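Internal ticket - ligand job 373, zinc ion:
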Amino acid sequence: MSHTIAPPYPQRLDRVRQALSDLGADAILIMGPANRRYLSGFTASDGAIGESSGAVLITTGSAALLTSSLYYEQARQEVTDLEPVELRGRWKRRLPEKLKEMGVRRLAFERDYTLYGEYEDLRQGLEELEAGSELVPVKGLVEDLRLRKGEAERELMREAARIADEAYGRVTGELAPGVSEREVARRLDEAMVELGADGPSFETIVAAGLNSARPHHEPGEYVLREGEPVIIDMGARYRGYCSDMTRSFCLRQADGRYRELYDAVLRAHEQAKQAARAGAGGKEMDAVARDILTEAGLEQEFSHSLGHGVGLDVHEKPSLSKESEDTLEAGIVVTIEPGVYIADWGGIRIEDTVLVTETGHEVWTHAPKDIVI
Ligand code: ZN
Ligand code: ZN
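stdout (C-alpha cells):
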C-alpha cells in the first residue's frame, strides 16, 4: 500500500505554538512518546521508565528533537520538520544547559509524561545555572490536538484495521479444539506482521472457557474446547497507528444461553454504534448500550465502559463511559465494545473501531461476527 499523504508537521507545530501563547509560556518540552511522534515523526520508543529516547522542544521560533547519541542517526533520518539535536552525556546537565542557551524563561512540560525525578533534575539544573526558568505543568495539550484524525492518519488507521481483519480471518479459519490460547495469540501476531503490521497494537487477548470472564485475560496454556466461549481482542499497529477489535464466539457449537447473551451484547453494540455521530456525548452513548444490557438483566455483568479513542495510542481520548464529559466530533476515532462477564460461566465482548463523521460514522473493523466458528 502506498501512502500519498504526508503528515502535516508544520501545522501541528503551529497549533502547539498557539497553545503556548495562551499559556504565556515561551517553550514546551514534549516527553510523551505518542505526542513526540505526532509532532516530529520520530518513531523510537522509550526504554524502561526513566529511559527516554528523546524530547521535542518547541519555542515560538524553533522546533527541535532533542536526543542522545544512541538515537541521533535515527532522528536525522526520520525528523524532517524539526531540527535533530544531539545532547551528549548526561541529560540531567545537558538539558538545563540547552534551555539556558536558548533563553527559555517559562517552560511548559507534560505533567502526565514527566517523572518526578526528571522534573526535580530539571528544576535543580536550572537553579544551579541560575537560568531562572519557571516550569509550568500542562495536561492533555497534544492529546487534544490528536483527537481529530486528519487524512494521513485515517489512511494508516484504515490499513491497521484491515490487517487485523485479515489476520483474524486467516487464523480463525483454521481453529480446532485443542489449540492453546497462547498459540492462537502467537498465530494472530505472526499473521499481522506478515500482512505488514509493525506488530500488535497491544498484547493480543485470547481468552477461552472461564478465562473469558476476565476482560483483560493474558493468554496461557488453556486449550480451546468445543462449545466453550472464546474472546479474541486484537489490533494491529501500522506505521505507529493502532486498530482495536474484539470478537466472541463458541467453537463448533453454542448453547441456548450463549446465543441469548450474545444477542443482547450484539444489540447493545449495534445500537450504541448507531448513536455514534458528531455531537453525541460519551456518556449518552455508553447509556445506549448500558440500557439494553440492563433490560436484559445484565447491568452488573457489563463491568467496564463502552469504549475509548484510538490513534497512536490504543487507548486515548475521548472516553465513552458513565462518567464521560466528552462529546464526539467529526474525525474522532472510537471503539464501541460492550461486554458481559460471568465468573462461573465466561464472557462475551464485541468491539469495532469507527470513525465519527458529521452525519454518522464509518466502521473500520469488518471481521465477521459469527456466533459459532
Ligand atoms: Zn480491544
Ligand atoms: Zn478497546
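Auto-summary: The domain at 9-145 is CATH 3.40.350.10 (Creatine Amidinohydrolase; Chain A, domain 1). The CA atoms of residues 110 and 323 lie 24 Å apart.
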